[in-house]
Amino acid sequence: MTNATATAARRTSLHGFWSSRMTFILAVSGSAIGLGDIWKFPYITGQNGGGAFVIVYLLCVFLIGLPIMISEILIGRRGRRNPVTTMGLLGEEEGGVRHWRLVGVMGIFTGFIILSFYSVIAGWTLAYILHAARGEFTGGDATRIGEVFATITGTWWRSAAWHTLFMIMTVFVVARGVQRGLGQAVRILMPTLFALLIVLLGYSMASGQFAAGVDYMFRADFSALSGNSVLIALGHSFFTLSVGICAVMAYAAYLPQSTSIMSTAGTVVVADTIVSLTVGLIIFPIVFANGLAPDAGPGLIFRTLPLAFGNMPAGAFFGALFFIVLAFAAWTSAISLIEPAVAWAVERRGLTRVKAATGIGVVVWALGFATVLSFNELDHVQFLRGSIFDNIDYLASNILLPLGGLLITIFAGWVICRNASADELDVGTSLAYRSWHFLTRFIAPVAVILIFLHAIGVFTL
Ligand code: PHE
């Protein structure tokens, strides 16, 4: 046992442990599966032309995202502290450089930015529960549904009110401690979500345009794919898996030593991917069957899914249930977006969880107004990538997440010694270990750098 190994083995969790491996898998799945799969994946697929984008996204998920998730869990469990302290601690132990803590700081900052817009969209989801339950979608009239969407997003105080409610819900759970309750909630949520997706998939299959939807999602025309689209696919693979931001790292600090990291990460990544692809297969047939545009932007699911509910038997019930489940899925993701910051404030600043969560919640809530307003009062402000929201999302998802992921792979692959990573992953020098190590050292960092350079036009293919 090296010195580093001995220290790591002695470190214990400061916040207790997940009650079982299953709870951890549920918590990380709860973080991964959310608006990214259901709201964002379909609309960015639509904006980037379908098939080729989906294939690049899948490659990024399995060749880059999965190894990073394994790295984050490994690092988190070894450090057993909030991400800032953990990165500093391991950086010092393994390479003598404490500055690695800045990766944790960047993760916290990125989490703030993402949560600020995430909460606004999640707020729309809450509003949709009411609209669906009141039967407003019944009959499936696209114009009327468009009006409902425009009313919610177009009135700043409505959007702000729902955003406020969602932030309160998030802060409430985080203040109580994530281990309590989260596992339980996800245990009920996931099966319900899967069941509802099957119902919707059945509807889409019967919609008459299923083949067109499948075709759109999987027929790849790479010639139409720009460097920027490839960067968006990369960024989204990180966004959807919750990696590159130290969120999974924060959760892994509470992971019991005996859990297998590789199979845990594999399970989460496969589940998340199945959900995203299923949602795509639900949305695009509805888009084509109703003559809608696949590139409608952030409103896509809010304009398409109500059409499905409006036309199916007991649609008000299924619709309300679906948006409840979606709000829950968003909730379990939002919690993981501020956990790193709260863990840091509690450990390093000595605040109580309640104070830390509330303070941080207020900051993120205020930041959220930039997104709220970019769909109404400030919708005329367009620059660089589009609206204010588009720019905030682009910065966080397509620049900060890949950058965080890049630094995490370099750290896990090059700074942490082989002994330590093999010890933590506990699969000996098996093929699984060697594959992870190779992807982490070479493929993932090189791919991220090339995709960055390609997107800014340094070279073209
Ligand atoms: N993965 C979440 C989703 O797909 C969003 C998220 C990103 C959560 C980063 C935590 C960290 O909705």
Descriptive report:
The protein is an all-alpha fold and 461 residues long. The chain has helices at residues 3-10, 21-32, 35-47, 51-79, 83-95, 101-133, 142-154, 156-176, 179-205, 210-218, 227-241, 247-252, 261-289, 300-311, 315-349, 353-374, 388-415, 418-425, 431-455. The longest helix has 35 residues, at 315-349. The protein is globular, with a radius of gyration of 21 Å. It starts with a helix and ends in a 6-residue tail after the last helix. The structure holds phenylalanine. The site of phenylalanine has 15 residues, from helix 2, helix 3, helix 11 and helix 15. Phenylalanine (PHE) binds at residues 31-32, 34-37, 114, 239-240, 242, 245, 247, 333, 336-337.
Provide a count of the helices: 19
Helix/strand order: HHHHHHHHHHHHHHHHHHH
Task: Output the structural class.
Answer: mainly alpha
Please tell me how large the radius of gyration is: 21 Å
Strand content: under 5%
Q: State the low-pLDDT regions, or none.
A: none
Average predicted confidence as pLDDT: 92
Ligands, ions, cofactors: phenylalanine
Proportion of helical residues: over 70%
C-alpha termini separation: 47 Å
Specify the overall morphology. globular
Largest sheet: none
* Beta-strand segment tally: 0
Keywords:
single chain, 461 residues, mainly alpha, binds phenylalanine
List the helices and strands and how they pair.
Layout: H1 3-10, H2 21-32, H3 35-47, H4 51-79, H5 83-95, H6 101-133, H7 142-154, H8 156-176, H9 179-205, H10 210-218, H11 227-241, H12 247-252, H13 261-289, H14 300-311, H15 315-349, H16 353-374, H17 388-415, H18 418-425, H19 431-455
The structure holds phenylalanine (PHE).
Phenylalanine (PHE) binds near residues 32, 35, 114 and 337.
